[in-house]
From TrEMBL:
Assigned keywords, A-Z: Membrane, Transmembrane, Transmembrane helix
Localization in the cell: Membrane
Main location: membrane
TM stretches of this protein: 15-38, 50-71, 99-119, 131-153, 173-195, 207-228
Family stated for the protein in its record: Belongs to the SAT4 family.
Superkingdom classification of source: Eukaryota
Cellular component GO terms, alphabetical: membrane
Stored InterPro entries: Rhodopsin_dom_fungi, SAT4-like
Name of the protein in its database record: Related to integral membrane protein
Length: 367
């Protein structure tokens, strides 16, 4: 192997290993935080949690194959590679094609389940999400089966030292599957937006939720870059033409996992802020005034015809409950109670005065 080709291999080896490992680790961390949040908030896991876990596990297959390709001459022209390394690299490319559609299908359907729990109260949104989930399942099945049998024998794709043939238009097929995936990602991104901006909640909540869900646009960008990279895909020289495409494939799966887990991490942040606050009861009081992403927006969606998000009487009763809890936890020296009872002709008059003194060192929640 020439010196320039060795440097090319070292460059792509380093980039492939570092990038895919870092983002695979971030995706794993995001999913772990999601599961921890589900445990401390409700104590049980939902269907979408398991679906996201399956999608993450399948993405590991593509990550491992990409790393193995990095040590089998990725970035170097195929004719410069020994036959064993060339066959191993082609097999790694074939494996990545199998894990990508299956992993993305589970991740996308998991996100759809989550969106359905938030905005499914609207029949049109629920129907759109149901239809989209069926389309994604059919797309993944078609992509997987075609990827497996694009050559006959299937092993002929990575081992040309046997009799076999491959279907015409393989590169066009890859681009078509990628284009359909991009359309699915875009539709998933756009479906909840009209509902969010018609909810009767504060503007800052609408902006915050829109921003969180808009992070999914990163998946669309990576999907587009992957399609563009397929334009220079050379099936007879996978070692030098598949390096960047493999990285984009892994990044697409990992970032989709991260974006699908981010909206469900609120209980973890709430627990962290509560434990690091100066006083636990004060931290809980402050956090109770913050919006709950899932419960607030799902209830607002189901009551979108109401004139108010929460009735004034409900607010008053909630404030009374919070105040009573705060009183019970306060020290007796901060509470002064004066009572006098006078019985006059069968009429009992009772006077009670309560005063709650709050330390000046504790800031107000609204500050």
């Amino acid at each position: 192997m020439a010196n320039s080709e060795w440097k090319t291999n070292e460059y792509w080896k380093t980039v492939s290993v570092v990038v895919v490992l870092v983002f695979a680790g971030l995706a794993t961390l995001a999913y772990a935080l999601r599961m921890y949040a589900a445990r401390i908030s409700s104590g049980r896991f939902k269907v979408e949690d398991y679906l996201m876990g399956i999608g993450l596990l399948l993405s590991y297959g593509a990550t491992v194959a990409t790393i193995l390709n990095a040590f089998n001459g990725v970035g170097v022209p195929s004719e410069e590679l020994p036959p064993a390394e060339k066959s191993s690299l082609n097999f790694g490319s074939w494996i990545i094609q199998k894990f990508w559609p299956t992993s993305m299908a589970f991740i996308k359907i998991s996100i759809i389940f989550f969106l359905r729990s938030l905005f499914g109260a609207r029949p049109i949104v629920r129907r759109c999400l149901d239809v989209l989930s069926v389309i994604i399942a059919l797309w993944a099945t078609a992509a997987l089966l075609t990827n497996i049998f694009q050559c006959w024998l299937p092993s002929y794709y990575y081992n040309k030292n046997q009799k076999g043939y491959c279907m015409p238009g393989q590169k066009q097929f890859f681009m078509a599957m990628g284009s359909l995936a991009l359309i699915e990602d875009t539709v998933i991104l756009l479906i909840p937006m009209p509902t969010i901006w018609t909810l009767k909640v504060k503007l800052r909540q609408k902006i915050a939720v829109t921003f969180i869900l808009s992070l999914g646009s990163l998946v669309c960008i990576l999907s587009l870059l992957r399609i563009i990279e397929f334009r220079s895909f050379v099936l007879t020289d996978l070692s030098s033409s598949s390096a960047l495409e493999s990285i984009f494939t892994c990044l697409e799966m990992n970032i989709a996992t991260i974006c699908g887990c981010l909206p469900l991490m609120r209980p973890v942040f709430r627990k962290f802020l509560t434990s690091t606050d100066g006083g636990r009861s004060y931290g809980q009081a402050c956090l109770s005034s913050q919006p709950n992403f899932q419960s607030d927006f799902s209830s607002a969606s189901s009551r979108s015809g109401a004139s108010q998000f929460q009735k004034l009487s409900d607010v008053h009763s909630s404030a009374t409950v919070v105040a009573s809890k705060s009183k019970r936890s306060s020290s007796k020296r901060n509470e002064t109670r004066t009572s006098s009872e006078i019985e006059l002709k069968g009429i009992e008059v009772s006077t009670s005065m309560h005063q709650e003194v709050r330390p000046a060192s504790i800031p107000d929640c609204n500050d």
